[in-house]
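User: Second chain of the day. Same drill as before.
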Amino acid sequence: MKWFDYIAPTTLASTLVHLDSHPGAYLLAGGTDLLVQLRAGRKQTDLVLDIKNVPELNELSFNEATGLTLGAAVCCAAIHDHPAVHKHYPSLAELSSIIGGTQIQGRASLGGNLCNASPSADSIPLLIALGATCRVGSSKGERDIPVEDFCIAPGKNALQPGELLISIHFPAPTKSSGAHYLRFIPRNEMDIAVAGVGASVVLHNGAFKEARIALASVAPTPLYVRAAGDSLKGKPVNAESIEAAANIASAAAQPISDMRGTAEYRRHLCAVLTRRALQAAIKQAQELQ
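Assistant: Same format as last time:
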């Protein structure tokens, strides 16, 4: 592994100054992806900025009117253990418990998982389904990016030079809403998903009011299938509506064949997982009516 300098700034302003003066610097939130990539030589840098001590990047707060703010460096264990997350975003709490093992969850962050921009990332489909937005900042100011627009290629995100992800914001959950992430993996734990689906629904009078569906591991980036969610709006909550949306999601997939599964198998999984994720989200929404 190539040598590099290490700095642990304690303010957002000083972090941005370092980013401006070192365009090739990498940010370390948990290090569970970055350190592996540096050791393997897949990435090289002269400077690593440890952002675990920056307050804005460690915010974890909930407001009933505005929703949840999750700092980019907040670890999965903290998300899982937060009472407001468990109460208002149970799917997010569950998601935080399936990323890696216990030791990984104490370091890894959803912000880091998002910035790594892996097509197979478990967290991103649910973030998309929940309608999350990314707050990114630089010395020139801040801007918001919908999560579905954040990953632009395998391992590449929408951050410009000098920018960093500050936080992820989730809108306040509405009545009769539910969400779920479901994946298929070769082993029970700590493996890369062959396919994954995040789904959210809002129900009203026995029909779908809103729905969002996103896929993992079946395209160059996590894939927001807007048409699948839109197909449910106004439709009755029944097997026919769900099956139609599942077929749309499957048709939108752009999988490849590799050692983990064929493209045909992954398309089949997209339909199955979409159907099951929607059913789980519906059950949650009905329980919260």
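The chain is about 35% helix and 25% strand.

User: Great, on to the next one.
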